[in-house]
Design a protein that fits this description.
- By secondary structure, the chain is of the alpha/beta class.
- The chain has twelve helices and ten strands.
- It has helices at about 15, 20-40, 80-90, 90-100, 100-130, 145-155, 190-200, 215-220, 240-245, 260-270, 280-285, 290-300, and strands spanning about 55-60, 65-70, 75-80, 135-140, 160-165, 175-180, 200-210, 235, 250-255, 305-315.
- The strands form two sheets. The protein has a six-stranded mixed beta sheet, with helices on both faces. It has a four-stranded antiparallel beta sheet with strand order 1-2-3-8, with no helix packed on it.
- The longest helix is centred in the middle third of the chain and has 30 residues, at about 100-130.
- It is globular, with a radius of gyration of 19 Å.
- The two termini are about 35 Å apart.
């Protein structure tokens, strides 16, 4: 059964979210930051950041960084230690580029529509699960884009907005917590969820988005997918996400993967599909646009698109 706001037809792709020149510049700076951070590397994680499994295999390598795949839950994660990851995240050159007024203004112009869609999704779900969707106290786990925080603060949904690291200890005073595209940047996603839990009142809602290690593009393209170190560290599976949400005191209420760019992106990178992946190679080569569109809708409905959108309820404290 189709449910409102679950599946989208025209969500903007990356080409619409960032000009190619600034994207290439950001990618160049990120690669250089990874090179600097790699000089510090000692030893990466001993277990899966999702289910905690200790059996994993090499899935691919990119920019000299190994990505491992968990044999238990299918999550994909970078082999990186905390010190190296911190060095990347605090790299001054990359941080200055992303905090510049030009970068932030472009993000605001390019992403305003997608941000509004996120707020509409939140309002719909708040009314469904809380019975109200105006004037709510919101805690944000952090966001790279100042424009999204401004838009959220100005919406009817928001009565007040506090962003990490303010209120760092957590007082259980907030009705909503939001974390968009942050889990994938952490070696310890469960700890991030526990921090959000401490800020929420019991019964409060967590709105979460995360890049998936089980998305169609990752499985089909591996290192040629649109992920790179150390922006993408923990690419969890649905099973891995469910595990850490439960450990952090949340009950998952709503899970969807509403993306629509997976098939088109894999099609544009068809030369990089492994020769042994006969099903995908045949699908991309021999199908017309109608069939490929139907396959994309299948990915949406089956939870196999690239990004997960999750609503969870706090059921216990951490």
């Amino acid at each position: 059964m189709l449910r409102a706001y679950d599946y989208t037809e025209n969500t903007a792709g990356r080409s619409a979210l960032q000009a190619s020149r600034s994207f290439n510049q950001e990618l160049k700076l990120a690669k250089a930051a990874v090179g600097r951070a790699l000089q510090l590397e000692t030893e990466g994680p001993a277990q899966c950041p999702g289910c905690g499994g200790k059996e994993h295999t090499l899935f691919f390598e990119k920019w000299g960084v190994a990505y491992l795949r968990c044999g238990s839950c299918g999550s994909v994660f970078a082999d990186v230690d905390d010190e190296t990851l911190k060095a990347y995240q605090e790299d001054a050159v990359l941080s200055d580029f992303r905090s510049s007024s030009a970068y932030q203004q472009e993000a605001k112009e390019k992403r305003e529509l997608s941000w509004q869609e996120i707020l509409d999704w939140m309002q719909f779900r708040c009314f469904r699960y809380l019975g109200r969707n105006q004037g709510l106290r919101i805690f944000s786990g952090g966001d790279r884009y100042a424009g999204f925080a401004e838009m959220m603060r100005g919406s009817a949904l928001c009565g007040s907005l506090t962003a990490y690291p303010q209120g760092e200890t957590g007082d259980g005073a907030f009705e909503i917590a939001v974390s968009f595209n942050l889990l994938q940047q952490s070696n310890h996603p469960r700890e991030h969820l526990c921090m959000l839990n401490r800020h929420l009142m019991t019964g409060g809602l967590l709105f979460l988005s995360a890049r998936l290690g089980t998305g169609f593009d990752i499985l089909a393209l591996r290192e040629h997918a649109q992920v790179y170190p150390y922006e993408y560290v923990s690419l969890l599976s649905r099973q891995g996400l469910s595990h850490i949400l439960a450990q952090a005191g949340f009950e998952m209420l709503d899970y969807s993967t509403p993306g629509h760019m997976d098939v088109g992106y894999v099609q544009s990178k068809r030369a990089f599909i492994h020769e042994d992946n006969l099903f995908v190679r045949n699908l991309i080569s021999d199908s017309d646009q109608m069939i490929l569109g139907e396959f994309q809708r299948f990915l949406q409905k089956s939870g196999m698109s690239s990004y997960a959108h999750i609503v969870a309820k706090k059921v216990s404290g951490q």
